[in-house]
Amino acid sequence: MGSTGEEDERLLLAEALNQAGYTVGDLWLKFFAIGGSVGEYEVEAYLSGLILLPPLQRDLLAHAANELINELPPPLRAPYSDDSENGLDVEGSNSGGSREPYADDQRDGTRTVDIQRPQSAEADPEQEGPGGR
């Protein structure tokens, strides 16, 4: 039923919705709001592989799904040891965002690394040398 590309589109759309935790009803409501013109039952039949949809309707479904997925909060990120010292919220809800250790250079595709020198044991009483304690 349909070409392999269309089948892949359908399977990936269904998987993206499943992973994001959205229902067919959620997808259909967003799809309809942005101009989709098939009913919820047809969307469910399409996602189940029972019917084909024209390319425009498939693209609107993909767009609706991507808009829904973009509304999800970002995944929890692992904090760096100095995040709390710099006033960053380790749960990722601060307005400044979390520090990215690697930054893409948009001009030539190279990556730079944010390296900070460790503090000496004298500057930080919590860090003692090998002979301490």
Radius of gyration: 24 Å
What is the spatial order of strands in the main beta sheet?
Answer: 1-2
Gross morphology is: elongated
> Overall mean pLDDT score?
78
Low-confidence stretches: 92-114
Major sheet attributes? 2 strands, antiparallel
The portion of residues forming beta strands comes to under 5%
Q: Work out the helicity level.
A: 25-40%
The end-to-end span amounts to 72 Å
Order of helices and strands: HHHHEE
Number of helical segments? 4
Q: Helix/strand-derived class?
A: mainly alpha
Q: Write down how many β-strands occur, each being a DSSP E stretch of 2 or more residues.
A: 2
Characterise this structure.
This protein has 133 residues and is mainly alpha-helical. The protein is built from four helices and two strands; from the N terminus they run ααααββ. Strand 1 and strand 2 (111-113) form a beta hairpin. Helix 1 (4-20) runs parallel beside helix 4 and helix 2 packs across helix 4. The longest helix has 17 residues, at 4-20. The chain is elongated. The termini are far apart.
